[in-house]
Each structure stands twice: as C-alpha cells, then as structure tokens.
Amino acid sequence: MQLKTATLINDGKAVKLGWTTGETARFHALWLRDNAPDGATRSATNGQRLITLLDIPADTKLTKAEISAAGDLTATFAPEGKSVSYPAAWLVRHAYDQTPARQAGWLAPEIETWDAGLQAKTPVILHEQGKTDRAAFGQWLAAIRRFGFGVMTGVPRQSGSLIEVAEMFGFVRETNYGKWFEVRAEVNPNNLAYTNLGLQAHTDNPYRDPVPTLQLLCCLENTVDGGDSVVVDGFRAGERLRAENPHGFALLTRHCARFEYAGSAGVRLQSKRPMIELGPDGEMIAIRFNNRSAAAFTDIPYDDMADFYAAYRRFAEIIEDPAMEVTFKLKPGELFIVDNTRVLHARKSFSSSGTRWLQGCYADKDGLLSTLAAIEHGQKEAA
To answer: Which UniProt key words apply to this protein (predicted)?
Structure first.
C-alpha cells in the first residue's frame, strides 16, 4: 500500500493523505509527532516511548509532508525541525479520521456472537497438540477470542493439571478460593457450586473488581447421572435484549447492579458495576450476571426501578432460552475455558450417587491475547 498525495491543512496543524487505493485520512501534527516511530522517540527494543507528551512543543505543526519513492510519508515538524518517516501501511491501519454511526452495544470485528448453533463447531484442541503445534494452538486461542469459549481434550487426569494448561498461554489468578478450587458436592459448602444442585447460567465472581476474565474447569472424574455443563453467549443475549427492548437494554447498561460475597470467614467482597457494561464509545465490553451473588440494588432511581427489573427479568429469560445453550457433559481429561466477562456457564443438577470431580481456576485475557498476538506476529514475520 502506497501514498499518492500529502497536503498540509489548517496552517500545518494537520495533513490530509491519499492512498493509491483511493482512501483518504487526516492526521493532526501533534498526533503524528507523539506517535513518531524513530529511535529517538521510541525504543527499538520494546517499542515504548522514550519521551513524554510534555517533551513535545505544544505549538507543534508540520512544515513539510512529502511522499518518498517507496510511497511512505516523510513529515517535518516545527519548531523542532525534526523529520520522521511513517510507513503508508502503518498510517492506514491507525487512521482515526472517521465518524462511524455505531449503535450502543456494538462489538469489535473479531467478536462473533452465537447461540445453540455453536454446538457443532465448538473450538476443540487436543492437549498434546496444543503443547507441540504452535499454529494449531494459535488457531484455538483465536477461536476463544472470537467465541469466548473453547474445549481441550486429553488433559492429564491429575490434580492441578489445569494450572499447566493456564500457563500454556498466561498466568493463574489466585483468589480466596486458592490457586485452584475443587468443584464437587460438600456438606455445608461455602459456595453453592459445591453442591449437586443445578446452577443458573452466570458469570463468576462479579463481586470482584476486577473480575477474573477467564475461567478454566477441568474434569477428573464424572460418573454421575446429569451434571451437564451449559454455556451461553452473554453478548448475544445482550443483542437480543437491545433488539426487543432498547429502553431496557439502556437501563441495564446505564445503572449499576451490586454484588457481594461473604461466604468465608474474613472475606467480604463487594462490587458495583452494570450487568451489561459498555465502553465510553458504546462498545459492549462485559457481562456480569449472577443472581446468587446479587446484592440489593440501590443505585437505580425509584422511577426507573420497575423498568429495570422488567429488563433484568427479560435478560434472564433470554439467557435461559434453550435456543441459546451449548450443552455438553465433560468427560475425565476434558477442560473448558470461558471468557468470564462474556460467556455465562451453568450446570444441570446431578444424582447423589457416583462421583463428579472438577477443578477450576481463574486466569486473565491479557495473557491469552498476548500469546495469541505473539503467535500471529511470528506467522506474519515468517510469511
């Protein structure tokens, strides 16, 4: 990709660029200077800035904008008299000169929402393949980024083996439940997960701030009747609610719910966040839904409370719609991972006879996404 034109505008405070593809975009001089890729501005080793914004003159402007023989931009800045080259392809990837008409609740392009139809195309990888085939492992991680859910088979049936899986892409988030936790029926449990009761689809630990963004559950034994696992795409549920009831969707995004946990001595966890969280630009970025851990809602005005509860109820009905569910029974040596800010998980009730032993742990998406980005970067470098 090459540049074709470069025209200074607004007395050099910006430049308008045109590519050979016909695309155009404007860039502010101060933005270009702040993002200069030269060795005096950014470390060649790690890409981090070597200067602060205050090191750049506030009256920075462009005195020249020229196109090189390779079709890239060479920009000269005053008052520094500094010239910097910018690859045309980099500029088009980082163009911000756009005013997209985005509906509240929009999703990033790498996200694909789903319902029960994902059952036939669940992302699955064999444990040994994940360890030895980096390309296949990257494809699996990319599918988790896209769908928020994946399954690994052939995991060693040893206590704590899920930790090794988490460390294949990132780091374990240790909590008051420990580095990992046992999921099997107990007498007088400190959490309803440790019973044979069915559990409504939920995200884990909404009472934490921040919440663990990934959860892994690994099956070591399973001879009970029932106990099937269920996953539901909270983003798809949010899309359905928005389509049916825009006002109710807005209430669940605008007002905070409260969550709390006080099931263990010396532990009292509390948070206040919306059930459907949007970024400042309206992007849907997180779902928090856990009826068991919901505290009294006290941040919704009286005049909105009835409509808030109606939206909350409808959101719950959508989440529990069988058409939204992907259902499976974990076998020993199988593990599933969910994006805990997006995908809700549930469990069917199971018999009191037999054994059902799962272990769970938490991790965070930054590690997974970092490993995925490194794999993808390496593939581009090799291409």
So the answer is: Dioxygenase, Oxidoreductase
pLDDT tens for the 383 residues of the chain, in order = 899 999 999 999 999 999 999 999 999 999 999 999 999 999 999 999 999 999 999 999 999 999 999 999 999 999 999 999 999 999 999 999 987 778 999 999 999 999 999 999 999 999 999 999 999 999 999 999 999 999 999 999 999 999 999 999 999 999 999 999 998 864 344 445 555 666 899 999 999 999 999 999 999 999 888 889 999 999 999 999 999 999 999 999 999 999 999 988 899 999 999 999 999 999 999 999 999 999 999 999 999 999 999 999 999 999 999 999 999 999 999 999 999 999 999 988 877 778 889 999 999 999 999 999 999 999 988 88
Write the CATH number for 162: 3.60.130.10
Burial 303-331 (b: 16+ CB within 10 A, else e): eeeeebeebbebbbebbbeeebbbeeebe
Residue appearing with tokens 């905070």? 256
- Is 121 found in the same domain as 87? no
278 in a structural domain: no
User: Considering only CA atoms, which of 62, 92, 97 is closest in space to residue 77?
Assistant: 62
Same domain, 66 and 161: no
How many whole angstroms from its chain centre is CA 263? 28
Residue 165 counted as domain residue = yes
Shared domain for 47 and 124, answered yes or no, is no
Candidates 29, 35, 23, 24; CA nearest to 9 is 29
Domain edge (last residue) among 37, 58, 93 = 93
How many other C-beta atoms are found inside a 10 Å radius of the C-beta of residue 381? 7
> Degrees (nearest 5) of the Cα angle 380, 336, 127?
60
CATH number of the domain enclosing 67: 3.30.2020.30
53, 182: one domain: no
Residues constituting the chain: 383
- The reply to whether 98 falls in a domain is no
Compute the distance between CA of residue 264 and CA of residue 261 in angstroms, rounded to an integer.
8
CA atoms within 13 A on the CB side of 184: 15
